[in-house]
Amino acid sequence: MKRYWFRWLLAGLLVLCSGIIGSKSALADSDYTIRPFQVTADILRNGDANVRETMTYHFNSGTYHGVYNIQDLRGIRGGKLTGISSQRNNGPVVIAHVGTDQANHTYRLTQTQQQIKVKLYQKVKAGDRVKVTYYYHLRGGVKNYRDTAELNWKLVGSAWDVPLKDVRLVVQLPAEHISSLQAWTHGPSAGVTRVSTKAGRVTMTVGSNPANQFIESHLLFPTQVTATNPNRSDQARKRVVQRQEARLANATNVQLKQRRLRQWIGYWVLVAMIGTLILVAGWWLKRHPATRQVVPARITHFFDVPQVSPAVAQVLVDLRWPDTNALTGEIMAAVGRGDLKLIMEQGAEHETARLTKVGTVENGFLHACFATLGNQVDSFTLAELEAFAAADQQGGETNGLRIGKVKLMR
Predict the structure, then answer these.
(1) How far apart are CA 47 and CA 105, in angstroms?
(2) What is the pLDDT of residues 72-113, one digit of tens each?
(3) Can you tell me the distance from the alpha carbon of 31 to that of 117, in angstroms, rounded to the nearest whole number?
(4) What is the pLDDT of residues 305-359, one digit of tens each?
(5) Residue 122 · residue 212 · CB < 8 Å
(6) What confidence score (pLDDT) does residue 11 get?
(7) CA distance to 170, 268, 269, per residue, from 273 (Å)
């Protein structure tokens, strides 16, 4: 039972870790990315805005026949597309024109009271980089109240399917030295908003804006900046906006603290789980030590059984005539093949071995022994062989026997 719960604990931790890594990988994996993403809005004195929206697509895989863009018109008094330019990789900047044949550098425009949707046709493949700039003229983005002028605008809509990287948004007012200029940004909490009262400019930068996440800019400035704006109201607005933004800022700060607290708790819970697993694994391994296998001694040399006879093998290896070891090998090989029969019997002085031919003997020395030694046909004893060797004088030696060219030592 102990082994089962240990396995389940290990499996659970692996699933948790793989889930965390997998979620991050899924967010990073896409057919294309957009980096950088830039919007510049030049506000006019009548409250309209000339907008330049530039984005660079990096295609990671697949093939495409173009890109599209959606400009939200809700909350303003309409607008129109004034131009499109594109640049593929390091090629020239090309001005697109309206077309219906879906040819490169043509676009199709679909406009309603709520949005302007543009489809730019451009064949691209994996590895391509396309920089596209859209030009819009939007009407009625600013409203003049009795005590302030207000711009409340989603510079980045929520219709993007992929995260936007290196986002930079600029709102340029038609005046400088605006001491009472105030700005708030709604969107990712990691962004930075810079207000330049001297230049009359608000700049927002965000490292990464998640997919389907809008970025909204809310500005207050004197009505003299947009003095010819026809979009007016006699109501007081400044204090209402300031109190509203203060409440939103407090709520955002609370959410940010809660998110950081959850991240901190989750981090230490994960650390505690990993530490606990290490301790449990160490305790379990200590209670169940591994069985160490004895490492066998290394064999210096290994030889296969030679395909030649023992006598020939000795000649090839030692480069000399075979001796009694080779004869012993020949006898044992013949016994193994069933050509000889080896039995022990009692001799005159001590026990000796009798060799009897029961098959074909190919060794010349043994063949001569069977023909010369003993009183029995096809049989002799080692004692008879030793006695014959002692009496043989052919080799000029009294302590050895030569039959053919094989010498049997005593």
Answers:
(1) 32
(2) 888 888 999 999 999 999 999 999 999 989 999 999 999 999
(3) 22
(4) 667 778 788 888 777 788 878 888 888 888 888 888 888 887 767 888 888 888 8
(5) no
(6) 57
(7) 46, 8, 6
CB atoms within 10 A of CB 20: 12
Cα separation, 3 vs 279, in Å, equals 15
User: 24-60 in b/e burial notation, b at 16+ Cβ within 10 A?
Assistant: eeeeeeeebebeebebbbebbebbbbebbbbbbbebe
Kindly give the pairing relationship between strand 115-125 and strand 106-111.
antiparallel
Cα angle: 181, vertex 187, 189; to 5 degrees: 95
The 10s digit of each residue's pLDDT in 151-199 is 998 899 888 889 999 999 999 999 999 999 999 998 886 789 999 999 9
Closest to 74 (Cα-Cα) out of 226, 198, 184, 214? 214
Phi, psi at residue 253, to the nearest 5°? Answer: -65, -40
Every domain of the chain and the residues it spans: 31-236, 250-287, 310-409
Q: What is the CATH number of domain 31-236?
A: 2.60.40
Which residue type occupies 140?
G
Quote the CA–CA distance of 246 and 395 in Å, as a whole number: 125
How does pLDDT run across 252-287, given as a tens digit for each residue? 777 777 877 888 888 888 888 888 888 888 888 888
Phi and psi torsions of 283, nearest 5°: -65, -45
Angle between helices 364-372 and 324-337 (to 10 degrees): 80
Give me 220's structure tokens: 């207050």
| Residue with the two structure tokens 């396309």 | 130
| Alpha carbons 21 and 227: distance in angstroms, whole number | 55
**Concatenated DSSP letters of 18-70:** HHHHHHHHHHH--SEEEEEEEEEEEE-TTS-EEEEEEEEEEE-SSEEEEEEEE
At 16, the pLDDT band (50, 70, 90 cuts) reads low
Q: Which residue reads 């499996």 in tokens? A: 11
- Residue pair 155/54 in contact (Cβ under 8 Å)? The answer is no
